[in-house]
Amino acid sequence: xxxxxxxxxxxxxxxxxxxxxxxxxxxxxxxxxxxxxxxxxxxxxxxxxxxxxxxxxxxxxxxxxxxxxxxxxxxxxxxxxxxxxxxxxxxxxxxxxxxxxxxxxxxxxxxxxxxxxxxxxxxxxxxxxxxxxxxxxxxxxxxxxxxxxxxxxxxxxxxxxxxxxxxxxxxxxxxxxxxxxxxxxxxxxxxxxxxxxxxxxxxxxxxxxxxxxxxxxxxxxxxxxxxxxxxxxxxxxxxxxxxxxxxxxxxxxxxxxxxxxxxxxxxxxxxxxxxxxxxxxxxxxxxxxxxxxxxxxxxxxxxxxxxxxxxxxxxxxxxxxxxxxxxxxxxxxxxxxxxxxxxxxxxxxxxxxxxxxxxxxxxxxxxxxxxxxxxxxxxxxxxxxxxxxxxxxxxxxxxxxxxxxxxxxxxxxxxxxxxxxxxxxxxxxxxxxxxxxxxxxxxxxxxxxxxxxxxxxxxxxxxxxxxxxxxxxxxxxxxxxxxxxxxxxxxxxxxxxxxxxxxxxxxxxxxxxxxxxxxxxxxxxxx
Length: 527
Description:
Elements: E1 4-6, E2 8-11, E3 14-21, H1 37-60, H2 64-77, H3 80-91, H4 96-114, H5 116-136, E4 151-155, H6 160-164, E5 170-175, H7 183-191, E6 195-197, E7 210-214, E8 219-222, H8 226-245, E9 259-264, E10 277-281, H9 295-308, E11 312-315, H10 350-367, E12 372-375, H11 381-393, E13 398-403, H12 406-410, H13 412-415, E14 421-424, H14 426-434, H15 452-468, E15 472-474, H16 484-491, E16 495-498, H17 503-511, H18 515-526
Parallel strand pairs: 3-4, 4-5, 5-6, 9-10, 9-16, 10-11, 11-12, 12-13, 13-14, 14-15, 15-16
Antiparallel strand pairs: 1-8, 2-6, 3-7, 7-8
């Protein structure tokens, strides 16, 4: 067995402990003769209802993004089309377990064929299938192991339901598959739990083997002694305590200010130690909705965040066929990543944006907040101008545009004639710049934010902001990387928005360098 393994580090921190693998999913037995198709159809309905009820119950006990994801999964299990498909197969003579397996397989294949974000979400259906099949077979639903001691959880991949239900006995996560924007990565960062994905060979490590996990570098030390494991744990404790002791606004060693902001999905994600919210992902509030949220519901959700945080930048719904919100009812597309998503949804459903802008403005008025609002997937200056006109007509104080498309970065100066600020989403900007699916672990080198072509686009946006006297921030994963953050500041970025767990290490990284040193590092990276 190798003494070192490597994957993609997706959540900072270090941990050490014995490995425990997720239990294998239920084995589907051979088909059995069916004497009563109606009874099998009833068993299908009971299994799907049980899965939906279990996920709904767990969502009620969770909060923030974990609750949102569990509610969305419960809604998939309760999908009438899935039920109709599985019941139809049962009435045609399949036993309940095989009818469920076949129906889930067909829906999974349809999502996988679409590619991009939806292809990754197809894996979520596997978990729902395993739960439904287990119920139909009279077996316990798959779940997290409970060995009775702290452990490092190892799996081929983790479902959103399992990741959202992690208990305090889980020290770290290591998966053989997955990518930096998977649910495992998002939820691990939100909890401050070290995590490594796309780690080849981890499933060959026997249970009980003590490993050391570095969630920043993606490195695993395999077969540690207890003394070595204790050293890893103590180093992590000391590092977290040291970083947590740092307070105050972000700034370089010579006092150049850089706002350190949070990425959140709801008020439950707010944490102390940052200077505001740089990315309020409003779509996370409504992932489970079959009907559009009302004006009053939206006002309440936005006002809750405005009342608890200053300097909040709200992103309008970043939704579409690559990140579907069921209540939108958008048609399927052959290439969702290049289709109707983000601001482009307004082309089909303008009332959705109008209602949201009205609700944001009303929530700001009620709380006395100054509303900053930005649109996702802006491509042209004309789109930016039209969005700004509609937002300002409703009393929105500051209007911005996200830079996720190379065309927008190339015309950043022109966009800034229309809007008050820009926010760069490095995840999508990298995907579209390098024509590389952001979910594909084999293309991680192309999606590395240090790629000079991507840095040049960021530099163009920052320079345009300096010329216009308007702020330009970064809210992609690169913003929370303590190695990359100084490069971004050196390029001229004025704010960095990240998961709460990343703020202390980024603050420290900036405080160790002068602005001139940040600029020198940026120029070296560009070269």
